[in-house]
Each structure stands twice: as C-alpha cells, then as structure tokens.
Amino acid sequence: MPVVPMKELLDRALADRYAVGAFNIVNDLTIEAVLAAAVAERAPVILQTSVKTVLQYGRSRLFGIVQALVEDVPVPVTLHLDHCPDRAVISDCLAGGWNSVLFDAHELTVAENLRQTTEVVAEAREVGAHVEGEIEGIQGVEDGVGSDAAPAVYALDVAVDFIKHTGVDCFAPAIGNAHGQYKKAPTLDAQRVSDLVAATGVPMALHGGTGLSDAQFTDLIARGCAKVNISTALKESFMKSGAAFLADAAARDRWDPPALFTQQREAVTEMARRHIRLFGGSGRAW
C-alpha cells in the first residue's frame, strides 16, 4: 500500500478508539523492524523522524530510504516529522514528501504560535499533508529538543481556541507526560484528553509513551489519544540488544556484523509489535 495521509490514519483510530503507534526511527534497520512489526500485526503505522535524524541523513536521502522500504509494504504507513521548531526544516520536509509535521512552537506566545501554525497548516494543505500542533511543551529532552522544566499548562478554552482557529489535524496536550524514562510513576490529567476531544473532535497525540503503564495507555486511548509516540523504547531496544550482542562477541572473540543487525532488528520488531497490540492497532490495516 502506498503511504497514506496522517489524517486518514488518525480519524479512523479516533472513531474506533484505538491508537496508531508512531515510532521514532533512527536508521534503515529500525525502519525495517517497525515495518515488519506492522505487517506482522496487520496494523497501520507511523514512521516518525526527529529533526536530528533528518539533518544527520539529509532530507532527500532519508526520504529515499523510507520510500524504498515502504514500497511493497501491505499496510498503511505515514511519514511524520516530530517536534520541529524550525520553519525552514518544516518547509523542506513538506516539499520533500513528508505526510505530516509537528510544528513545535510552544516557546512562542500562544498568539504567535497560533499565527505561525495557521501558516504551516496552509503550507501543508498545498501538498496534501497534515499538521500536529501544540501550545505546551512536553517535559524532557528528546534528540536535543525540549526542556526538563515542567511546562506551563494553559486553560482548556485556550487549547480549544488554538485547535479550532489553526485547523490542526492532531493536537499534543501536556497532561503530566514526559519524554524519556519517568523518574517516578506520572500522575496524568486524563480528563483533559476527554475534554479536548469532546470540544474539538480532533484526535490527540500522546507524547512520552515509554514508561506509562498498560492501564494508562488503555485509558488515554479510549479517551481519544489516537496517536502514541514511542521513541525511548525503540532506542533502548536497539542499543541494549546491540550492547548485549557485542559483549558476547567480545567474550567469544567472534565478530559477525550481520548477526548483530539481525539481533537488533528482532529486538526492535518485538518491541513495536508489543506496543501495537497494546494500542489496539492489530488487524486494523485496510
């Protein structure tokens, strides 16, 4: 199946109250692994790229890799740019084939964020792409973006006004979630998700998914979190499986790169399959 619009994936998920896993890939191996998980589970999936990964590969080269790997994949796939405060990178990715972008302008005033996000939405519409928005930062640093300081949380009507006036297709609320591993079990404002969905009909994006309990995932998805971001868990699966393999290789003085890649791919695939099942995405491909 060809790459499909983000809005189509998320509107279906919101209507049936499941979530599409959005996995922050870091290279071709992790792309292959996440796609293999989606195919095995017959699930739609979102390949997410950080600004750091886009700049590391170059937009054109990274898109070429993704395009080649999704060409024969028989499940719906979307390519999304995660937290990006740089309008130039936003424009470059939209022009270069990305289906969706998160314009992260939470450090601006709400009024300026609204103004610029409206412009990004118009720009995205010109190429048939979609936009995720936010007005509050998600605590924690991910791929060099963010802050460990607790974000300011705006009144519900401010968030509702932002969603309605910008025309964003998805919104990332701050509900006590955080990027990276949680230092203690988070206390989440789940009701805010319900209230935002009821007021706008727009699907919510859950950031900081790694480390939440199964019960928290299930509750938030039922309330309208139709997109769930998984980044830290992917990086940990990729690197810890590699570290374990290399430790064993050193002990035995046997060096086999293809076997290393196989172990890392299997670890990431299993991690992604586990999350897809938990999010209710299995069997939702069309």
Automatic annotation (TrEMBL):
<dbReference type="Pfam" id="PF01116">
    <property type="entry name" value="F_bP_aldolase"/>
</dbReference>
<dbReference type="InterPro" id="IPR000771">
    <property type="entry name" value="FBA_II"/>
</dbReference>
<dbReference type="InterPro" id="IPR050246">
    <property type="entry name" value="Class_II_FBP_aldolase"/>
</dbReference>
<dbReference type="GO" id="GO:0004332">
    <property type="term" value="F:fructose-bisphosphate aldolase activity"/>
</dbReference>
<feature type="binding site">
    <location>
        <position position="179"/>
    </location>
    <ligand>
        <name>Zn(2+) 1</name>
    </ligand>
</feature>
<feature type="active site" description="Proton donor">
    <location>
        <position position="82"/>
    </location>
</feature>
<feature type="binding site">
    <location>
        <position position="134"/>
    </location>
    <ligand>
        <name>Zn(2+) 2</name>
    </ligand>
</feature>
<protein>
    <submittedName>
        <fullName>Fructose-bisphosphate aldolase class II</fullName>
        <ecNumber>4.1.2.13</ecNumber>
    </submittedName>
</protein>
<feature type="binding site">
    <location>
        <begin position="208"/>
        <end position="210"/>
    </location>
    <ligand>
        <name>dihydroxyacetone phosphate</name>
    </ligand>
</feature>
<feature type="binding site">
    <location>
        <position position="180"/>
    </location>
    <ligand>
        <name>dihydroxyacetone phosphate</name>
    </ligand>
</feature>
<keyword id="KW-0862">Zinc</keyword>
<dbReference type="GO" id="GO:0008270">
    <property type="term" value="F:zinc ion binding"/>
</dbReference>
<feature type="binding site">
    <location>
        <position position="207"/>
    </location>
    <ligand>
        <name>Zn(2+) 1</name>
    </ligand>
</feature>
<feature type="binding site">
    <location>
        <position position="83"/>
    </location>
    <ligand>
        <name>Zn(2+) 1</name>
    </ligand>
</feature>
<keyword id="KW-0456">Lyase</keyword>
<feature type="binding site">
    <location>
        <begin position="229"/>
        <end position="232"/>
    </location>
    <ligand>
        <name>dihydroxyacetone phosphate</name>
    </ligand>
</feature>
<keyword id="KW-0479">Metal-binding</keyword>
<dbReference type="InterPro" id="IPR013785">
    <property type="entry name" value="Aldolase_TIM"/>
</dbReference>
<dbReference type="GO" id="GO:0005975">
    <property type="term" value="P:carbohydrate metabolic process"/>
</dbReference>
<feature type="binding site">
    <location>
        <position position="104"/>
    </location>
    <ligand>
        <name>Zn(2+) 2</name>
    </ligand>
</feature>
